[in-house]
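Re-run with default settings, no changes from the original entry. Doing this only to confirm the output is reproducible before filing.
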Amino acid sequence: MILDRELQLHLLERMAEEYPSYWDMSKEYADDGSDEYNKVVTNLYYLMQHNLIEKKSITISNALGRGFNLIVKLPTINENGMDFLASDGGLSAILKVVTIKFETNTLKAILANKINQSDLPLENKKSMIDALEELPAESIKHLSTKLLDECVDNLPAAVLLIGTWLSSF
């Protein structure tokens, strides 16, 4: 296959060495139309499509009825490529974190709904929901942490449940 992971890593590393400037690839790969050069250009194009190098690095020109040619300009790694190479994921690992917040009332409603769906006797359900409604926000937070711990402890069962749920779509 013309796509080569080792070559892609090499190309990204070479561009990273020159960052923020461009990499003069002509010192390493001559524009001679060889299979090796075409493989490098194709892999650079692939990296560009995945937004790891600057879009201006490669242009496409029509080859007069023979399809198109990829023309390498100034291959330059971008911030996504630098983060990809970083062992800690770079700033993307920090900036692209998704934080999920639940309001206390939302958590109470979710828990009350699950209690109502349970097989408990009606009087037990009512007393649990009443107690739940009286809990302060900090206690709900603690209860949620305990429930999450329990879910993680039973992860194999949760994975099966998730798989069953996803296959229903």
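The chain has a mean pLDDT of 87. The beta strands are 58-62, 68-72.
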